[in-house]
């Protein structure tokens, strides 16, 4: 018996969907019927019964994935809830999710994603300068979300509850520090960069919902990792935590206690046992990451340049190769590597951690610390926090300079003024000048050419004054004033003079601290000293420095040398930061000696021509851990100061070795030094001036012996001299120096910090992240994203100059650039 012939026309008619008059007919399998062997509909199915998989509606699915914002984007993590949305099911406002289920936003109703039973935790330690999350901190949370969403984990942030962490993609919040409200930077205005405001949690303590203390966590299985333990929400008990917990972080923000903060962060990480920990590769964030890694005895993958859930890469060996590996436990992330989280809101549930008395910070050698504010007039544009720029619409440059001084801002200019010779070339803002990363950019008389908009693409807030309502800079600004800049500048000066009338200083104080007095603007002026009475509080005084005691014994110093390479040729070359360390040691009156651990001493021989008379060489294989040999050599003849570059060259270039060495020797470590001097009041202490972002400095008094790393902004090294290089000598040393403490060397064994397998391959440059640009986009797309204007700011059209000045000052104070007026 043969099979009856199919009737395509009849089958097509069964798939037809009735359409309105004039509409295009369409077909769907949802209305089809099962055909019998004779081509008729089977009697066991009624007409209109769907057969097979229902037809997808891509447009409706895409609409359910849209994330609201200035530029619509799709959040693929919401795909699990698309099917109910397409079917017409009602969506709740709060949705519980698990590793196999993801919550999504409904059309017109925002939902909160709750990860009730995370498979693991990803911890984030943000910088929070000024008390709020920066763009770099938001990128850290975006990276943590990539790691957590790849395997059903949860993101926990170690910070105060002042920011809206749920909108930034955080599932848990562990409060370890709460700066006073007077020191916190105000949240940005609506529509300016990010969502601000407080999340509603109590600043004095947190109402705990979970207890992740070590007592509530099961021990890891033999040979296993604590990160492999399941985290079930019902297994946590309720506890409470107060301000007395982690006292190292509950201090005034002017107190500099990096070791105490590292101890507090390390205690939280031991209690949580997260699978990954993400730090910021910044001045203070990188220092904290290396201190925590040394304290935990774990490797740190420092300065990641590319990041994904599968692999991370960093530059190594003086930029000749890049190292690639699976995401390790401790990672420090550079800026503009990962996009911030822009998906659905998360729960941001507060956690309480019971501190372990064993995690208390040890005695530290830092006696006092005080910040030295930067002088806005001399800060480079690339480091400036507040820039006031003049364009072709400004003709009275004297008034412009007075306004920049009164506001405490760094002066800038457009290319037109620089080409005319009216402003120095180093003050040009734009693609052909300096690309800014300022918190606020104040443009006077600048229309906004594409090249100029590229230079201000990374500025968080923009204020513009221009006569053209349709100028690109007006559209880019958060506050735009359509008026003549020549009329607004005198009004601003008059308003500032009126506010400061009757005060002692008669000028505006910046929130971050502006350099005061003419002495701050004189680069040759010596900063005031710390007297013994003020050293305990860490305040600067104007007393004259007492003369150093001539009977004080000279200091002994050792400079750690690495096998540097030239970035172009790859040949052996001295590391500049290590030559700068030699110059700093010579400035103290010490006779420094070098110390190198590696296969050959020829790589560091050029340091003899930069001031070193002797270099000790510890012969080790190229892939061996140098820490045990360095500990043994330095324990046999302990110096007063151990100097090292910020990062070595020729190896991993992670900069963690000085921190591990300081932990092994039990010495305090001070990072990013630009100058060193003996404390005149106490010769047993060293005065270290640290380099901080935005051109600021921090003066730290530390007890000797100590370890100091040198910043590239330190004084230039001594010029190379051929005769001293010939006179100097290299002394071979035994890698196992007799007299070293066996326990010290055993505690720093290299096997304790073994990390994942690392693959090396030739380094290739990767473009930095630009807001709005797609990953892997073309140069034209990236240029468009960098110059694209974002509307939504406030616009004042032809206001009175006094009213415009009042609005501008109010806006600058609202975003935290200017302090409130003196009363």
**How much helical structure, as a percent, in the residues?**
10-25%
Task: Assign the CATH topology of the largest domain.
Answer: Rossmann fold
CATH architecture of the largest domain: 3-Layer(aba) Sandwich
Average predicted confidence as pLDDT: 74
**Beta-strand percentage range:** 15-25%
Describe the biggest sheet? 10 strands, mixed
Outline type: globular
Radius of gyration: 31 Å
CATH class of the largest domain: Alpha Beta
What strand order characterises the main sheet? 18-30-29-28-31-27-24-25-26-32
How many structural domains can be distinguished in the coordinates? 4
Separation, N- and C-terminal Cα atoms: 104 Å
Structural class: alpha/beta
Instruction: Give the number of helices.
Output: 20
Uncertain regions spanning at least 5 consecutive residues: 30-52, 79-109, 178-254, 504-548, 737-753
Fourth CATH level, the homologous superfamily of the largest domain: HUPs
Q: Please provide the count of β strands.
A: 34
If you had to describe this structure to a student in words, what would you say it looks like?
With 823 residues, this protein is an alpha/beta fold. It has 4 domains: 56 residues, no CATH class; 248 residues, HUPs (Rossmann fold), CATH 3.40.50; 148 residues, Rossmann fold; 219 residues, Rossmann fold. Helix content is 22%, strand content 19%. The chain is built from 20 helices and 34 strands. The protein has a 10-stranded mixed sheet, with helices on both faces. Helix 5 crosses helix 6, helix 11 packs across helix 20 and helix 15 crosses helix 16. The longest helix is centred in the first third of the chain and has 15 residues. The protein is globular, with a radius of gyration of 31 Å. The termini are far apart.
